[in-house]
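Support request from a user on the community tier.

User writes: "When I paste my structure tokens into the form, the page sometimes reloads and wipes my input. The last time it worked, I copied everything first. Here is what I submitted, just in case something in the input itself triggers the reload:"
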């Protein structure tokens, strides 16, 4: 929930860019919600020289040499996972005292320090991270001010050279100027409000501290400020005291009893309005829920409150996780440009990720807000109560929480559409990253700058790895693993190895050892699937082989080891269109003899093939006739799939019509459309051709394709089913929104994009014309239903209906039907779908 993945070769994103990434029906994940703009602060070097005849004046070369030496000394150096060492000191309790001022803010920081090494040894230096923008005003140990000779102060922090070897109290006083903080890390002031952003390394811009995630402390925070200017003073935990002071000031005191790292600290001070509700936990505790927004946005915060309550209830029902404090606050301000942040009990958002009314927001906005609010709330356990030991473990909290918010959104909306959207985004952003020069595993071995670590690989691929645990262990086994994880590690900073061990120990009969290889190997595997039917023996076999690509993170030549890949499959009877029972009679042969097959509880038509070796053959017995295979159902692993022989056009159409898996039905429609368009492009353009085909020639190339007629007929049937409401209407728009120019250009390179555009345009128009009767009937049915319903609701039924109506409107406009209303909306609807792709 902290940072945005840098999936487009940039470390910063504007809020419109962020919103374009999250504003997709049912697809909101906070991984795409907070832009990370974190430039390192480097003070300009200065030089001083004594005015003495015995000292030569510095030459330009000398100054240049000194400057170079200083720059080299301060240049960022790689940080390696293998070099991790636990801190020598733990901070049991921290008491912060903020005096917020217009010119200078004074911060008192009193820490209960406890050595982690054995008593009686030599004292060890204590290093506290800092920043050149933080002015040190005083250092005390056990109430005694330290002489300057007792510590070393640099641009990077302060080292207390010989602190006591027994527990002691350390008090540090600093002065900062939040109004001058343009880095927007630490405490800053914008539009009259004080606000913080401390992940990953912002707390060191407030005070000197061990600013690392494995230092977890109980925080008490006192805030003092002018009451008229800053009537709202918020921080982490429960409000334990407040009151007025002389001089028009007031104060609040906040106490957070749960240990947390400094990156989860938060403070907000400003003039904000508030809406309030409450939630009763499963154990009967009443929790006050408050959302603070700027006054002009008060009427737009209700949906965020609804989403928060739904999230709290879902986390209790699905994972048994109950909120742990008496108060939960959300703050949404226009100038918070980090998107959203999961600070303990005080989540901070940019307004655009919280505020919505039917007059100002689309269904996609509502769904995005629901998902982002859920993601940040879910961090309370997966990230806050249990956090990461070091930043190499970032996927431990972010990948797991992305998975949790994906599951929440799937339960709140269309599960099939949610999965399709998540996979589309993975293919669009993460697969290219895995194939490019910046490829890295979800737990890298090194980094130079932490901000560059917030990537779509760590987030999105990390979530897919968590999903593979659930696929391999089943929902019950996964829940057992989660329960054990929290039982063992509540209040701790841990690693991905600890998560793996909890999952493994909770399911002793299931060998998932090679799943760990996903954490250390970059690249997108390709799984080839060779299919064969033996009519005499009545067996059907699938030979799966994993091909692991070379990646630059290992120099490109280091051999990869087999990864455990769960491939969920079904066999569809070619005569009846029904799933065959594949829950038994499956034999496995593999070189490593470790690949296995496990049933899917409650689904006799599917089975999970556990590819644990480089290659394995899975043979199904008792198959009376050759079926149509449905491989990688639900996109059960983040891989590229190559089936041989490839599914024929008739098999794809059959899959589109009959497959019980909504993802593979969608995949079949996409493949059919893609293949038709690719053949049309190849027939109308070739390398070296300078003239583009006419619109008529492009249209002829599309409609003359051998598969076109059958494809159109299949799609007409889908529209008829949608009108009758016997198919997921939200899925219809996804299934029949076909690949665009960008993806086809990537597939056909080298190719003239204008030639591709011409075919795509004609494909869309001819498709709309061919299905126009069914499209108009579907639109009319949905419009009549909407008129009869009357009340506007943001629920799965109405959202799906509005989505389908908009899609039909766009197609009617493309076909020249539907009147002026359709024509005006067609371009906007088409552009929206294209941006999502």
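"...and here is what came back when it finally went through:"
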């Amino acid at each position: 929930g902290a940072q945005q993945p840098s999936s487009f070769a940039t470390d910063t994103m504007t809020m419109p860019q962020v919103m374009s990434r999250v504003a997709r029906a049912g697809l909101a994940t906070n991984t795409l919600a907070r832009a990370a703009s974190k430039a390192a602060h480097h003070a300009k070097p200065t030089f001083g020289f004594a005015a003495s005849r015995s000292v030569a004046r510095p030459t330009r070369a000398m100054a240049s040499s000194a400057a170079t030496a200083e720059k080299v000394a301060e240049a960022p150096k790689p940080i390696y996972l293998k070099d991790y060492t636990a801190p020598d000191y733990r901070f049991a309790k921290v008491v912060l005292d903020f005096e917020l001022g217009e010119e200078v803010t004074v911060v008192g920081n009193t820490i209960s320090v406890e050595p982690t090494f054995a008593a009686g040894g030599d004292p060890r230096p204590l290093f506290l991270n800092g920043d050149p923008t933080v002015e040190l005003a005083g250092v005390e140990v056990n109430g005694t001010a330290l002489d300057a000779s007792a510590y070393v102060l640099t641009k990077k922090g302060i080292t207390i050279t010989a602190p006591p070897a027994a527990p002691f109290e350390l008090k540090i006083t600093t002065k900062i100027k939040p109004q001058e903080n343009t880095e927007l890390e630490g405490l800053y002031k914008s539009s009259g409000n004080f606000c913080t952003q401390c992940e990953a390394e912002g707390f060191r811009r407030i005070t000197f501290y061990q600013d690392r995630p494995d230092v977890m402390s109980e925080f008490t925070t006192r805030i003092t400020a002018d009451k008229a200017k800053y009537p709202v003073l918020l921080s982490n935990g429960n409000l334990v005291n407040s009151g007025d002071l002389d001089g028009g000031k007031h104060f609040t005191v906040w106490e957070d009893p749960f240990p947390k790292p400094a990156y989860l600290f938060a403070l907000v001070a400003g003039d904000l309005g508030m809406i309030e509700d409450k939630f009763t936990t499963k154990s009967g505790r009443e929790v006050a829920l408050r959302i603070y927004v700027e006054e002009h946005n008060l009427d737009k915060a209700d949906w965020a409150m609804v989403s928060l309550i739904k999230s709290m209830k879902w986390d209790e029902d699905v994972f048994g996780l109950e909120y742990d404090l008496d108060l939960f606050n959300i703050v949404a301000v226009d100038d918070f440009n980090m998107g959203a942040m999961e600070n303990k009990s005080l989540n901070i958002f940019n307004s655009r990720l919280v505020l919505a009314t039917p007059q100002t927001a689309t269904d996609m906005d509502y769904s995005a807000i629901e998902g982002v609010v859920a993601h940040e709330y879910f961090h309370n356990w997966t990230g806050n109560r249990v956090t990461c030991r070091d930043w190499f473990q970032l996927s431990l909290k972010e990948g797991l929480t992305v998975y949790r918010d994906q599951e929440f959104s799937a339960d709140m909306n269309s599960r099939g559409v949610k999965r399709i959207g998540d996979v589309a985004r993975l293919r669009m952003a993460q697969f290219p990253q895995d194939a490019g020069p910046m490829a890295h595993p979800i737990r890298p071995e090194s980094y130079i700058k932490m901000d560059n670590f917030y990537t779509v690989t760590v987030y999105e691929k990390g979530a897919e790895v968590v999903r593979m645990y659930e696929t391999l262990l089943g929902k019950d086994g996964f829940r057992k693993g989660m329960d054990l994880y929290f039982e063992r590690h509540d209040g701790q900073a841990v690693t991905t190895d600890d998560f793996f061990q909890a999952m493994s120990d909770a399911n002793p009969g299931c060998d998932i050892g090679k799943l760990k290889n996903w954490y250390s190997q970059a690249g997108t595997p390709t799984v080839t699937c060779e299919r064969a039917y033996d009519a005499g023996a009545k067996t059907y076999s699938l030979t799966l082989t994993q091909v692991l690509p070379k990646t630059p993170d290992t120099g490109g030549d280091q051999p990869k080891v087999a990864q455990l890949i769960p491939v969920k499959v079904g066999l569809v009877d070619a005569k009846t269109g029904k799933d065959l029972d594949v829950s038994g009679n499956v034999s496995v042969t593999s070189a490593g003899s470790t690949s296995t097959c496990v049933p899917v509880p409650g689904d006799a038509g599917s089975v999970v093939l556990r590819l644990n070796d480089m290659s394995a053959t899975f043979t199904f017995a008792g198959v009376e006739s050759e079926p149509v295979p449905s491989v990688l159902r639900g996109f059960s692993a983040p891989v590229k799939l190559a089936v041989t022989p490839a599914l024929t056009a008739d098999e794809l159409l059959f899959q589109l019509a009959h497959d019980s898996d909504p993802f593979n039905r969608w995949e079949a429609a996409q493949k059919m459309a893609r293949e038709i368009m690719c053949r049309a492009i190849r027939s109308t353009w070739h390398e070296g051709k300078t003239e583009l085909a006419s619109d008529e020639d492009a249209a002829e190339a599309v409609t003359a394709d051998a598969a076109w007629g059958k494809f159109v007929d299949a799609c007409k049937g889908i529209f008829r089913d949608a009108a009758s409401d016997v198919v997921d209407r939200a899925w219809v728009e996804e299934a029949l929104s076909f690949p665009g120019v960008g993806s086809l250009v990537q597939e056909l390179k080298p190719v003239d994009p204008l030639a591709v555009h011409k075919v795509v345009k004609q494909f869309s128009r001819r498709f709309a014309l061919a299905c126009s009767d069914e499209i108009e009937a579907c639109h009319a049915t949905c419009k009549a239903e909407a008129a009869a319903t009357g009340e506007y609701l943001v629920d799965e039924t109405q959202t799906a209906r509005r989505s389908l109506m908009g899609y039909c409107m766009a197609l009617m406009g493309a076909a020249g039907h539907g009147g002026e209303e359709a024509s005006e909306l067609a371009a906007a609807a088409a552009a929206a779908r294209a941006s999502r792709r």
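Agent notes: The reload is a front-end session timeout and is unrelated to the input. Residues 2-63, 818-825, 830-837 have pLDDT under 50 and may be disordered. The two ends are 23 Å apart (CA to CA). Escalated to web team.
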